[in-house]
Amino acid sequence: MVLLRRSDILSPASRIILSGCRFLDDVKIGLTPVSEVLIAPAILDLSSPHGALGFDKVNLWDNILHPGRLYLAHTEERISLPKNVIGLLHTRSTYARFGLDCLRSSAFVSPGFGADRPMPLVLEITVTTVVQGLQRDALASLILFGVGDDISDCGPGRHSGRFPLSLLDS
Question: pLDDT tens across 130-150, in order?
Fold first, then answer.
């Protein structure tokens, strides 16, 4: 496994597509949540499509975030990875020090993610204390690794529809 740097990622040979992305340094790609996020309900009905009933929408940047709530936000950035690249996500330490976490359980981006078309990532935002005054910024980052051969079990379209992005449409 090889850590990919900006020059590797931006090389046409990489087959990596990044839309709306900015590099935080030579290896980290910043991930900024969109303004409108979903707050998961206190009770989630998994028998409904995507468990989607009962989600409320709020503006992440203008709202107060409360402990015990789960905020789902897709990123402004969209990515497409070939089958020989994986991604690791992490909450930027600037925010993690204050108890904000963007990953909950999803810190891995599979090879072939967004293979049909570049897709946003979904951040699972939680806080350990009340947080207000967030400024529009990259709350998380993505680091990419080359894994050698294509990993064949992650075919195109495999990730489509897992998160109901239509819930965020106005």
Answer: 999 998 999 999 999 998 776
Q: Give residue limits of the domains in the chain.
A: 2-43+53-150
Q: What is the pTM of this model?
A: 0.82
Residue count of the chain: 170
C-alpha span between 91 and 101 (Å, rounded): 6
Q: Hey, CA dihedral for 115, 163, 120, 3, is it positive or negative? A: negative
pLDDT above 60 (res 77): yes
- C-beta of residue 73 within 8 angstroms of C-beta of residue 60: yes
CATH of 2-43+53-150, one of 3.40.50.620, 2.70.40.10, 3.40.47.10, 1.10.287.90: 2.70.40.10
Structure tokens at 7: 């020059």
pLDDT digits (tens, 9 = 90+) for 99-135: 999 998 778 999 999 988 899 999 999 999 999 999 8
Structure-token match 């806080």, residue found = 127
Give the pair of three-digit tokens for residue 31: 């991930």
